[in-house]
Amino acid sequence: MGSVTVLYFAGARDAVGKRREVVNLEGKSTAGDLLDRLLREYPRLRPMKATIRLSINQEVVDASAPVADGDEVGVLPPVAGG
Amino acid sequence: MARSGTREVTAHDIDPKKIMAEVADKDAGGTVVFIGTVRRRSEAGDVDAMEYQAYTKMAEKGLRRIEAEVREKWPVRRVSMVHREGLLKVGEVSVVVAVSSEHRAEAFEACRYAIDRIKTTLPIWKREKVRGKNRWVEGAPIKSA
Q1: Measured between alpha carbons, how far is A3 from A68 in angstroms, rounded to an integer?
Q2: Is the pLDDT score of B117 beyond 80?
Q3: Cα Rg, chain A, nearest whole Å
Q4: Quick check: B136 and A55 CB within 8 A?
Q5: Do residue B123 and residue A82 have CB atoms under 8 angstroms apart?
Q6: Residue B108 pLDDT
Q7: A80 neighbourhood in chain B, CB within 8 Å
Q8: Average per-residue pLDDT in chain A?
Q9: Residue B43 contacts A where some CB pair is shorter than 8 Å
Q10: N or C: which end of chain B has fewer CB within 10 A?
Q11: A10, B140: Cβ pair inside 8 Å?
């Protein structure tokens, strides 16, 4: 099982009201499973569902990517650097 | 061997001259420097300030990856890239990319490529303050590397 550290940024940080939290994994999880859980937990994240991407250990991943104990997961709204 | 300069996200003022100096190279015949600044006008009106937020660890990894991509594509000499975080006023420097190479063509192309990749693949966001209101600037979903 284990746990991951979830980091929230920009509009996702505002919606969730925290910068980071530790989330316990429920059995075998993918990035998509984890995002679904976060969307259930934080209704204010839901409008951003289609455009949020997740990173695992600082790499952007697909929904099918496995999440493992100790991973650092980033919740990334659309970016606008420069 | 071509060496590297800065590749960082910083909370301090960026001095473009310093970044330009970092790519100085006696084997270079051309240096291209892109300087991004906070623009006054936005869709919502005149901007009072722009707040940049970054996932620093991932963004700095991204800068190193972008430099590797540039070096695969063009025989450049030196590359330096720095991006701001924190609160910036209109006109302040938000990003600098400097590239030196033997000939100007690859310096122009590599610099353009690097700033485009910074905008689309780095986890950096900005929130504009317009008439007392804060609004995250609408970007595009981050592209995987």
Answers
A1: 8
A2: yes
A3: 12
A4: no
A5: no
A6: 98
A7: 119, 124-126, 136-140
A8: 96
A9: no
A10: N
A11: no
- Inter-residue contact B85 to B53 (CB < 8 Å): yes
What are φ and ψ of residue B104, in 5° steps? -70, -30
**pTM for the predicted model, two decimal places:** 0.95
Q: Do A79 and B83 touch (CB under 8 A)?
A: no
Nearest to B54 by CA among B81, B35, B78, B72: B81
Angstrom distance (rounded) from CA B54 to CA B83: 9
Indicate whether B12 pLDDT > 90: yes
pLDDT at A81 over 60: yes
Predicted confidence band of residue B5 (pLDDT cuts 50, 70, 90): confident
Give me the domains of chain A, ranges plus CATH numbers.
3-76 (3.10.20.30)
Query: Which CATH architecture describes the domain B7-132?
Result: Alpha-Beta Complex (3.90)
pLDDT of residue A50 exceeding 90, the answer is: yes
| Interface size, chain A vs chain B, as Cβ–Cβ contacts under 8 Å | 87
